[in-house]
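Retro notes, item 3 of 5
We never archived the inputs for the NDP complex last cycle. Fixing that now. Sequence and ligand:
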Amino acid sequence: MDILIYSPDGKTAAYETGLAEHLPQANIRGWQPGDTAPADYLVLWKPNAEVLQPREGLKAIFNLGAGVDGVLGPHGDGVQRLPAGVPLVRLEDAGMADQMAQYVSAATLRYFRRLDEFEAQQAQRQWKFQKPNRLADFPVAVLGYGTLGAHVARALKTFGFAVRAWSRSERHDDSGIALHHGEAGFDACVSGARVLVNLLPLTPQTVDILDANLFARLAHGAFLINVARGAHLVEADLLTALDSGQIAGATLDVFRTEPLPPDHPFWRAPRVSITPHISALTLRDETVAQIAGKIAALARGEAITGIVDLARGY
Ligand code: NDP
Ligand code: OXD
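Structure as it came back at the time:
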């Protein structure tokens, strides 16, 4: 079997080695410009049009991430670039869910325990008591209750937060999380929330969802944690909401333009915390093991999970 690996920076060697350990019988190559040769499987991240040209024998395309917006584009039109009838498969967890739970829990607890305020006091050498927040006043809303969102919501629940979550389709479980779905359930999920966590995929339905209209429904002085995609956020609306105090602070891991340009106003916004898209890294060993396992299953004629529904866009 032939496996072709593509990365925009051309650094594919570690994935070639990793996959070869799991699939010693496979011919594995990194993509070079002009490579239109047949391949059974494509493994890629943010592909160019050339690598997606129809290839003889192609059976599946594996995305080196959970979000497939780098393939489909924020408006879903990239679907036309995909070879017809070839499944697109995304990463499922692969070590990202624990990382995401750590990151979001740390940010939420920082706000709940007022650690950001104590940091500011320390800078002024101030020894000053701050009234503790009460869990009852700190409902947390998680947008997206999939692989990552559900894991994050459950982690937050263990600290005693009243957690609500929102999905597209109806969900039931015994987690004690208040589950809402669809347009009709949106308001109940976000109304009065003190912390808003975004873990939605970027699709035509979710682009720009973090806007003034949504911020106005949260509690006054709410906190935003965006760990999904930069294009979910209307940046000007966040800056306005920070100015008015409607949003008291934001933790942002993803941005419309990455790396965030040096002159971007977020760098200077006092209550914005920035990380460089590291909330859940793609872990090579876990990723390679998952993709190799799915390739082996397909080769045996078995069904696999994680196939993207191209009509839904995730
Ligand atoms: P999943 O596909 O497992 O979950 C997506 C969730 O969003 C599902 O609950 C889904 O609903 C819900 N959803 C999708 N569209 C809508 C909609 N229109 N209205 C309401 N709910 C909707 O994805 P993952 O949890 O694996 O990943 C989520 C995103 O996290 C990725 O797409 C990626 O953008 C981002 N990410 C960011 C990383 C980082 O480092 N910053 C790392 C990894 C991922 P339903 O349950 O009904 O299908
Ligand atoms: C992903 C990411 O989608 O790393 O996996 O952002």
